[in-house]
Amino acid sequence: xxxxxxxxxxxxxxxxxxxxxxxxxxREVIQVAEANPDDPEKLATSFLKLAFPDLVNxxxxxxxxxxxxxxxxxxxxKFDRLRLYEQIEEAAANDPEERLRRGRLCGEKLLLPxxxxxxxxxxxxxxxx
Length: 129
Hints:
- It is a single chain.
- This protein has 6 helices and 2 strands; from the N terminus they run H-H-H-H-E-E-H-H.
- It is mostly helical.
- It has helices at residues 2-17, 22-35, 40-51, 60-63, 84-94, 96-119; strands at residues 64-66, 74-76.
- The mean pLDDT is 80.
- Helices cover 63% and strands 5% of the residues.
- It has a two-stranded antiparallel ribbon.
């Protein structure tokens, strides 16, 4: 109904007011990725600080909550201040190319380095002994 659509639109507007702007996210990700190309942990930490500025030492149980509507059973929690999916979809409404650019940025700067790190065996630390 029109009333329900208006309610959803209003909820999205309210959520957008507390959201970290895309420009802030993009600038931070690029700076950290370029300064630390071989350290995806720093990138992940930077991402978490942007997404969850109110959580000092975030735990997995605070970041993801059970959601029976998703195939994986978990979704990001209400404390997420980035809400990247929303920001990418909103950009698509005005410019499909911007949606692709934003998606590529997330994939290339965030996901690929983290996937590479996760698939690499841990290095033994040289203790000098």
